[in-house]
Design a protein that fits this description.
The chain is mainly beta and 144 residues long. It folds into 2 domains: 1-62, SH3 type barrels (Roll); 70-136, no CATH class. The chain is 12% helix and 35% strand. It has helices spanning 65-68, 72-85; strands spanning 13-17, 24-32, 38-43, 49-51, 92-93, 105-108, 112-120, 123-128, 131-136. A hairpin with a 3-residue loop joins strand 6 and strand 7. It is elongated.
Length: 144
């Protein structure tokens, strides 16, 4: 028998990396290969079925999200430049049902003042003092 191979029975739980959730979560074993080792698992959280990856394996080509983030000072400078540019505009309270366009100045209950940098299909990208965020808009069934 080969070391590091998992032979957990079908319908039992194993903890492994979910390729959709990108987190280590509980998965149910659904398929064994011809040698009797786990081959496919189903995530108990999102329901996706994928190839079983042992703890040592990482999905190829993935870049950690933390490495993509830029320095917090960059966000502050960007926000300050935009705030200076649009200081004459009256801030509009943010709501999920509201409609916004590029260069609108909004006030969010949690994040404070922000400037809309991109408005598209029911989403807006907003630069706040602590960084950019994507928010929903034009939702008929909700309001925040």
């Amino acid at each position: 028998m080969i070391k590091d191979k998992d032979s957990t029975p079908v319908a039992k739980t194993v903890v492994t990396m979910c390729t959709r959730c990108e987190m280590e979560l509980n998965h149910m074993v659904v398929v064994h290969n011809a040698e009797g080792f786990v081959e496919r698992v189903k995530c108990n959280t999102c329901g996706s079925e994928h190839k079983y990856r042992r703890d040592k394996e990482k999905p190829p080509g993935k870049i950690a999200k933390k490495t993509i983030r830029t320095n917090k000072g960059d966000f502050t400078k960007t926000f300050e430049k935009l705030a200076e540019k649009f200081k004459e505009k009256e801030p509009v309270p943010y709501s999920m049902s509201g409609s916004f366009k590029n260069d609108d100045v909004i006030v969010h209950k949690s994040f404070g003042m922000g400037i809309v940098t991109k408005a598209s299909n029911h989403k807006i990208e907003v630069v706040f003092s602590d960084g950019p965020r994507v928010l929903v808009c034009e939702r008929k069934d909700m309001d925040s």
